[in-house]
């Protein structure tokens, strides 16, 4: 009587695994089972972005890509801004959940309430100095050329 050796057992387990994975995949596609959410909240689940909440203001962001985490510069009640990356705690009661190009999603640690802050464009400091700009001729107009006068008209003198 031939018992199961190591190779036969591995083949049987591999086939069972393939069948189980295929069955789960089909059941998920058919809607028979539901898998856990990805953890990233949908826009419909979040409040609309506000420029300031709880004294916090987002001054700028660096959006993450791939495995690199996004970074937000947060200012708390006019204090100097701090750079905080995704997943990091800000003070003791907030966590940066997601950094996007136009907003930052934070979560309160005590009750998991989302806070969505809009990125506020920086304000100019003091009076803005206008840059010197040479006026352009209107489109379709022909520039006028004035003939040289006096000493410029007679070369070689």
In short:
Helices cover 16% and strands 24% of the residues.
If you compute it from the alpha carbons, what radius of gyration comes out, rounded to the nearest whole angstrom? 33 Å
Give the fraction of residues assigned to helices.
10-25%
N-C termini distance = 123 Å
- Low-pLDDT stretches are none
What's the structural blueprint in terms of helices and strands?
Layout: H1 6-30, E1 52-53, E2 56-62, E3 71-76, E4 82-85, E5 89-90, E6 94-99, E7 103-108, E8 114-118
Antiparallel strand pairs: 1-2, 2-3, 3-4, 5-6, 6-7, 7-8
Walkthrough of the structure:
With 157 residues, the chain is of the alpha+beta class. Among the domains are: 8-35; 49-118, SH3 type barrels. 16% of the residues lie in helices and 24% in strands. The strands form 2 sheets. Strands 1-2-3-4 form a 4-stranded antiparallel sheet, with no helix packed on it. The relative contact order is 0.12.
Key attributes of the depicted protein:
157 residues, alpha+beta, SH3 type barrels, 4-stranded antiparallel β-sheet, 1 helix, 8 strands
């Amino acid at each position: 009587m031939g018992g199961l050796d190591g190779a036969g057992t591995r083949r049987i387990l591999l086939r069972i695994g393939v069948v189980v994975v295929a069955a789960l995949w089909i059941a998920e596609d058919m809607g028979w089972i539901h898998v856990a959410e990805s953890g990233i909240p949908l826009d419909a689940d979040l409040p609309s972005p506000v420029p300031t909440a709880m004294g916090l203001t987002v001054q700028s962001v660096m959006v993450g890509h791939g495995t690199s985490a996004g970074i937000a510069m947060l200012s708390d009640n006019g204090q100097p801004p701090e750079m905080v990356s995704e997943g990091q705690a800000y003070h003791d009661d907030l966590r940066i959940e997601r950094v996007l190009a136009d907003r930052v999603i934070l979560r309160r640690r005590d009750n998991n309430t989302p806070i969505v802050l809009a990125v506020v464009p920086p304000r100019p400091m003091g009076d803005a100095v206008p840059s010197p700009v040479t006026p352009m001729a209107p489109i379709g107009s022909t520039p006028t050329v004035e003939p040289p006068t006096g000493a410029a008209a007679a070369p070689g003198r």
